[in-house]
Design goal:
Helices cover 3% and strands 61% of the residues. The chain is mainly β. Strands 1-2-3-4-6-7-8-9-10-11-12-13 form a 12-stranded antiparallel barrel. Strand 12 and strand 13 form a beta hairpin. The longest helix is centred in the first third of the chain and has 7 residues.
Length: 205
């Protein structure tokens, strides 16, 4: 039962790069993002994600991601290419422990063309103790960047973490980038009694 995108702040920078991921094998790149979440009529909380990349190698650690209070870690390998249309695909293998104990395979993918981009993330959380609690999660973003420092669009996710009746959440998002800092917000189910706001504050170094 997880709620948030995989480091959307870092994605805002990465998807605009057409160069292959393995171009510089010797340099490490890091990113950290916090996601404060406000659930109307529910429990507010914050999750966090940290990533480390070296060439095509991708490492990722999460807190309160698969469920509130859960910890998880992943390893993946990034394939990328394209010039006019830049793309990235990162298959992932990992696991969760704490409030959720599960084997978690998944993938992250992005495609960018001019000022438009599409990001898709999916994973299957196979609960090791309660198989009925296993579930499939998916997150999608369609973004547009009118200027370099601004990205906006529509996001959708399939999740059960909020405990409401909506299996699919959808709504607008906006991100502002300044150098290595990105701040954004996602507003799901606008105008309903089941609104959810997810903020994001991320940095790369």
């Amino acid at each position: 039962m997880r709620f948030a995108p995989r480091l959307a702040a870092v994605l805002a920078m990465v998807i605009t790069t057409a160069a292959p991921a393995a171009e510089d094998e010797g340099a490490w790149e890091f990113g950290v993002t916090a996601y404060p979440t406000i659930v109307r009529g529910g429990e507010n909380y914050t999750s966090a994600i940290a990533v480390a990349d070296r060439g095509a190698l991708h490492l990722e650690a999460r807190y309160s991601y698969e469920s509130v209070g859960a910890r998880s870690a992943f390893i993946g390998w990034t394939f990328s290419g394209g010039e006019t249309v830049a793309w990235e695909l990162t298959p992932l293998l990992g696991g969760a422990w704490g409030d959720t104990r599960a084997f978690v395979p998944g993938f992250e993918a992005s495609v960018a063309w001019r000022r438009l981009d599409l990001y898709v993330e999916a994973e299957y959380v196979r609960d090791s103790s309660e198989h009925d609690d296993s579930y499939f999660y998916a997150w999608t973003e369609l973004g547009y960047r009118p200027v370099e420092w601004l990205r906006l669009g529509i996001a959708g996710q399939r999740t059960r973490v909020y405990g409401n009746e909506r299996d699919i959440q959808r709504g607008p998002f906006v991100q502002f980038t300044w150098q290595r800092l990105t701040i954004g917000g996602y507003w799901f189910n606008p105008g309903s009694n089941e609104q959810v706001f997810v903020g994001s504050v991320g940095a790369t170094f």
